[in-house]
Structures are given as C-alpha cells and as structure tokens.
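Task 17 of the worksheet. Students: predict the tertiary structure of the chain below and write it out as structure tokens. Keep your answer in the requested format; marks are given for formatting as well as content.
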Amino acid sequence: MSDGFSRDELVRYGRHVSIPEVGLEGQRRLRASSVLIVGAGGLGSPAALYLAAAGVGRLGLVDHDLVELSNLQRQVLHDTRAVGTSKLASARARLEGLNPHVAVETFETRLDSGNALDILAGWDFVVDGSDNFPTRYLVNDACVMLGTPFAYGAILRFEGQASVFAAPGGPCYRCLFRDPPPPDLVPNCAEAGVLGVLPGIVGSIQANEAIKWLAGIGDTLAGRLLLIDALRMEFRSLNITPDLECAVCGPEPSVTELIDYERFCGGPLDGADAGPAETEDTEEAMEELEIDVHELRRRVDDGETFQLVDVREDYEWDICNLAHAGARLVPLATLPEAVESFDRAAPLIIHCRSGPRGDRAVAYLRAMGYDNAVNLAGGILAWAEEIEPGMPQY
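Model answer:
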C-alpha cells in the first residue's frame, strides 16, 4: 500500500496518479472529499458517474422521482430494467458497482426551504443538476449561506451553460440572474426538447470543476460563464463579477434565510394561462406571429415607427445587440413589470437569441392584449447571419 491506498485503488486510479498535477496527493484529497449532487437526472447522471469513477470518497444524491422510459435518452445512470423504480435506488446500485470504494448517501426527498440547509451542510462541494428555477435559486442561496461552492449547469435543446458559483470572493447565481422569469415564459425540456448527449457534456464539465476544486488544481469556472452550443459545436466563456447589490451574497444581503422559492419564482401569469401550443396550434398561426430579418431591416431602412424589444439577458446584450436599430433590452424575467410601458398602437417586435424566448414573450404579450406583438424569426443569430455577417455570435 502507498499513502493508505490499497493495491486495487492504486491500479484503479493509476491514470490519475500518473498526472503530475494530481499524483498521490491529489488522489488522496479526492478520497477525503465529499460532493452532494442535487438531481439524479440528465446532469446528475454523468456528474455522479465521473465523480464516483474519480474516487471522490463520499457522494450524496438528492432526488424524489422514479425512472421513466423517456429519461433513458439522456439519464445514463439508469437503464431499462430500472423503469418504474426509484432513481436513487437505481443510481446507488450503478455507482456502487462502478466503484465500491465510494460511500454513496441518498436523500429521497424534494429539496425545499425547510430541509435544504440540513441536507447541503457538511459537503465540500455541490453539483446542481436540477431542472427548475425554484431549486436553482434554493441551491444557490443555501450554498452561499453555508459557504459551499457549487457547479451550476443548465441545458435546453442544443444549448448549455456551466459555471461555479458561491466560491470565496466570486459571484453567485443571483449575481447573473437576479430574478427568475415567470414559469409561463420559460419552456422546459419536456416542451422544447434536449439533445440527449448535451447533459452528458455539461454534467461532465460540472464533474470536472468539482474534481479540480477538490484536488486543488487548475482554474475553475468561478467568475466565468461557459456557453455551449452543441449544434455549432462552439464554446464561449464570459466573465462574471459579483453584484454588489446581490440580495444574497452582496455586502448588505436582504435574503438571510431560505424563502418560499415556488412563490419567488412565480405562479401562472394572470391572463396567460395558455402557452404557445394552445394559442398557436398551426404553422400558419405561427407565421402570422413572426417577421423575418429582411422585413425588420426594411422597416429600419424605411424609418418606420415600431418598438424593438430584446428579451435576452444583460450579458447577451453585451456580446451583440440591435441598439443601432432601436432595440430596447427587457430581459424575459422582467417582461411582466415592463409590459405597461409598451405602446399598444405601434408595432411591437420581440427578439431573443434564436427564437424560442421570443415565442414565449409574444404569446404572453398577446394574452395581455398586445395584438401588435410579433417575434423576429431566428432571433439575433438570423440577423447576424443574413444582415450583419460581422456581428459577434455566441
């Protein structure tokens, strides 16, 4: 034995130990570390598998769902035999079979404001594999309060994001997204779909960040947001700075205890019970709610009066925007607050990055009586490709 490792462990982790930056000391640190993974689904599956394989000594998983057949396209912790059974039972069996030297703990419950601090306390690192805004904000706030860094990940269709939040001196999730968008304005993976391999990419990045943090090597994503476009196979990293007015991690926090996150993240919007699938149930109806980038350019060139509203986030606006065409930034989350500021008489053109958020915004605005609202088909990416080829893309 060497440094307390058995012969089996030395063989198992040999490819780690042979890396100078890791070595026996790094592997020892991994073995002495603990990681809690929130969610045993698309993101939690690859993260759990690679952290167990890497030899993290203690792994925790929080989930309360059963394995469904539709999960198996991306949730690689589980197999067909596990359909209908507990995700945590399936995950435990898979992880213990992968590496018996890892202690696996499970919490078969829904994470909420009443149990989050107790469950998240005592772990060296957290991986957030959740798929909804209430849990993301809950994990963030609890980690900030506990002083525990966590790896963030999010996925939809072909796009993913990853970062490390709540690291000492670094920003938290609320520094990037102060407020969540109303649920009726945000499509989930069941509605919009997700490329099966994408959570494998993002979840592996989350595991990579955890391993580097625990082993004390390399540079993590703390202070950076990694944007992944799997369709174009492009990666872009943006710097994030702490928000001095952040309600949780700022110098004068206003949120000092966990709150009712379902209420914070909002319920159904008044007057907007119907989603796009209910209000735009034919391709013809969809086309009536859109204009293309060439029509927008014509209106700009002709000096027509219209309102152009960008529903992306601040950091996306900083990359590229249509300010020169008169665009105004109204992040999707703030749309209900800004809705009364729009002119009901002038045409209202909404755009986002590639279209989906614009569709949601238009559906909401029309439900609120703005029959003049249309979406820019293809979003700012279509504008960059067809009108301004030199515009930065992401």
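Marker's comment: Residues 267-286 have pLDDT under 50 and may be disordered. The chain has 18 helices and 13 strands.
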